[in-house]
Amino acid sequence: MSMRWEGIERYTSKKLDRDLEIAEMDETYLAKASGLKYYPLAIVRAKGSKVWDADGNEYVDFLASAAVYNVGHNHPRVIEALKSQIDMYLNYSMAYFYVEPPARLAKLLTGLTPGEFEKKVTFGFSGSDSVDSSIKAARAFTKRKHVLSFRGSYHGMTYGALSATGIIDPKVKRAIFPIEEVHFVEYPDPYRNPWGIDGYEDPSELSNRALDVAEKKIRELDGNIAGLIIEPIQGDAGVIVPPLEFMEGLRELTNEYGIVFIDEEVQTGMGRTGRWWGIEHFGVVPDIVASAKALGGGMPISAVVGRAEIMDSVPLPLFVFTHLGHALGASAAIATIEVIKEEKLVESSRKLGDSVIKRLKEMQEKYGIIGDVRGKGLLVGVDIVKDQKSKLPDRVTALKVCWRALEKGLILITFGKYGNVLRLAPPLNIPEEELEGGMDIIEESIKDVLAGKVPDGVVGFIKGW
Ligand code: PMP
Question: Does the C-beta of 67 come closer than 6 Å to ligand 1?
Fold first, then answer.
């Protein structure tokens, strides 16, 4: 057994022999910064909202591989699109000749994103590179250097994206010397904010405070800012939904100072929040939309869709990657978009999300460790606290709830600025009985943790956020 999980059998009744063999190989050969594992679980099969591990244990998946499987695992339409593409050719570099699937996908995306203006698209493979490309476009178009980003934001791990990420401790980031022209301002968190404002009661007050801070920073830099990058709902920060008027205010500010508004939809896009794009909740039209994760239905593809004049301000060859717009990823993305439309998954996300939030709010009345329940559609966070009055984040309890849930057959992890938020992001087409079953497991796990059935020792095994 790997040293990493040695002694774990004391904490679980599950058979995990083959899982542990795979875990050992991973822990031995993968660089340690490559993962923060929650459980010695190695997935070998997946279908819809269920997955199976190497020892045959079955789980309902409330993580969807980090909000990737909006259409569910191995959706038959996605698989069919991939198979038919594989039978023709895998890909040919679109850097040098023409490839149909990415061209078709680009056309589709220009119609799917907000804004009735001419748009152009470029592609990559990850959320991180979509952020890098967005920043390139903003800088090339404005001929300015600085970028405005938000505390708590997660934009990825490539150089530009990591530099623009607010949630990673600056001391940790310093190890790789991030680019310096990124400035962080406060994202208006209604539940916990530096001003002690109850943002649910007084959203305007919260919004005004945060807008003042942003404007002050812009002035400090003499307006010399290329782009503002924002998640319309902060995901990894623990599902932070800002006040409606905040986004409108930001759009006005960016217009006034000629700053490119980059709408970072890597986690919130593709129907996840009950709209195609998270920004649509706010009625604001961005200049650039960055998408990845769910876009490829499980294949690694990202897209940046922006105003044509901004996207075309980037000189050749600065968007060229050998595999850009890979035909397999692009075919899968086209199928994914069709599935979301035909199965009306944007609507399902809204409807199922409302039912999840309702059930969680009922749980909040019963269990003092649930401080806040928030989200839109099926991007939902449950803030676990020491008690509802102090709002003190309780990461250890949150991790114990996840551990118990995993033991009971539910894939559930934490995230958030304090690592104490339960992350609910199942496939948007999860059958209602599986969703309810998962919610039952969460409630049972909370009860078990409160009854002292999960020892603290288990937390030592979990890396986690
Ligand atoms: N942006 C957001 C909002 C994300 O949630 C993530 C991934 N958690 C990323 C960017 C980075 O995406 P990737 O890991 O695919 O590079």
Answer: no
Does ligand 1 lie within 6 Å of residue 264's CB atom? Answer: yes
In whole angstroms, what is the distance from residue 446 CA to residue 413 CA? 14
How distant is the alpha carbon of residue 295 from its chain centre?
12
Packed helices 432-450 and 395-407: angle between N→C axes, nearest 10 degrees: 130
CB 368 within 8 A of CB 102: no
Decide: 166 in ligand 1 pocket, CB within 6 A.
no
CB atoms within 10 A of CB 414: 23
Residues 415, 311: Cα–Cα separation, whole Å: 33
Asked if 147 contacts 225 with a C-beta cutoff of 8 angstroms, the reply is yes
Question: What is the rounded CA–CA span in Å between residue 169 and residue 182?
Answer: 14
C-alpha neighbours within 13 Å on the C-beta side of residue 154: 18
**Nearest partner of 273 among 334, 211, 340, judged by Cα:** 340
Confidence of residue 2 (pLDDT cuts 50, 70, 90): low
Establish whether residue 271 lines the binding site of ligand 1, counting it when its CB lies within 6 angstroms of any ligand atom.
no
Instruction: Report CA torsion sign: 359, 361, 367, 372.
Output: positive
Give the residue among 304, 241, 226 at the shortest CA–CA distance from 272.
Answer: 241
Alpha carbon of 356 to ligand 1 centroid (Å): 24
Question: Using a 6 Å cutoff on CB, does residue 234 contact ligand 1?
Answer: no
| 128 Cα: distance to centroid of ligand 1 (angstroms) | 6
Q: Which residue's CA lies nearest to atom 5 of ligand 1?
A: 267
Calculate the CA dihedral of residues 355, 360, 363, 364 and round it to 10 degrees: -130
Q: What SS3 class is residue 70?
A: coil
Count other C-beta atoms under 10 Å from residue 45's C-beta: 13
Tell me the per-residue pLDDT of 199-251, one tens digit each, with 9 for 90 and over.
999 999 999 999 999 999 999 999 899 999 999 999 999 999 999 999 999 99
C-alpha–C-alpha distance, residues 212 and 194, integer Å: 14
pTM for the whole thing? Answer: 0.98
| Residue pointed to by tokens 């009735």 | 116
Which of 133, 19, 111, 66 is CA-nearest to residue 298?
A: 66
